[in-house]
Amino acid sequence: MNMSLAVGEVRFSLVVPAWNEAARLPALFDSIDAARGRWILAGRDPQAIEIIVADNGSNDGTPTIAAMRGARVAEVLPRRIAAARNGGAAVARGELIGFVDADSRIHPDAFLAIDAAMSDPAVVGGATGVTMERWSAGIALTYALGLPVVWATGFDSGIVFCRRADFRALGGYDEDRAIAEDVDFMRRLSRLGRSRGQRLRRLRRARTVTSTRKWDEHGDWHYLLQMPAVGWRLLRDPRALPDFARRYWYDGR
Question: Coiled-coil annotation: which residues (predicted)?
Answer without folding.
Answer: none
